[in-house]
Amino acid sequence: MGKRGPRPKPTALRILEGNPGHKKMSGNEPKPDPAIPTCPSWLPATAKAEWLRVSRELYAMAFLVVPIEVPWPDTARPTAIGTSPSA
Fold first, then answer.
1. Alpha-carbon distances, residue 29 vs 9, 40, 60, 68, 75 (angstroms)
2. Can you spell out the DSSP letters for 41-69?
3. What is the pLDDT of residues 25-69, one digit of tens each?
4. Which end of the chain, N or C, is less surrounded by CB atoms within 10 Å?
5. Is the model more confident about 66 or about 11?
6. Cβ pair 18, 10 in contact under 8 A
7. What do you get for the CA distance between the two ends of the chain, in Å?
8. What residue segments make up the domains of the chain, in order of their start?
9. Is 74 helix (H, G, I), strand (E, B) or coil?
10. How far apart are CA 23 and CA 78, in angstroms?
11. C-alpha 5, offset from chain centre
């Protein structure tokens, strides 16, 4: 069974809202570095261009970060309908 009650708010959100309850704030949250992730090599040229365009915009808005150690297995890679992941 999971924990009861609402999930705790992230520290950054509590700082923005002003911490009205004066609860102790956790400093143990992971803080990923803002960066543009590398483009997957298996994307077609048009998708790579779109990746670069969108990632630059998201990075400029401080909305894009590199995840902390999230490996993608080959079987989880998105593919077009009717094609195999190894193509």
1. 11, 28, 23, 12, 30
2. TTS-HHHHHHHHHHHHHHHHTT--B--SS
3. 777 777 777 778 888 899 999 999 999 999 888 888 877 776 666
4. N
5. 11
6. no
7. 42
8. 40-65
9. helix
10. 43
11. 25
Residue 70 corresponds to which tokens in the numbers above?
């999230």
Q: How far is CA 14 from CA 30, 34, 35, 62, 68, in A?
A: 15, 20, 24, 18, 22
Q: How many residues does the chain have?
A: 87
Backbone angles phi, psi at 76, to 5 degrees: -95, -5
Q: Which residue has the tokens 């902390």?
A: 68
pTM of the model: 0.47
Count Cβ atoms within 10 A of the Cβ of residue 62 and give its class: 0-12 exposed, 13-18 middle, 19 or more buried: exposed
Which token pair is 58? 């998201």
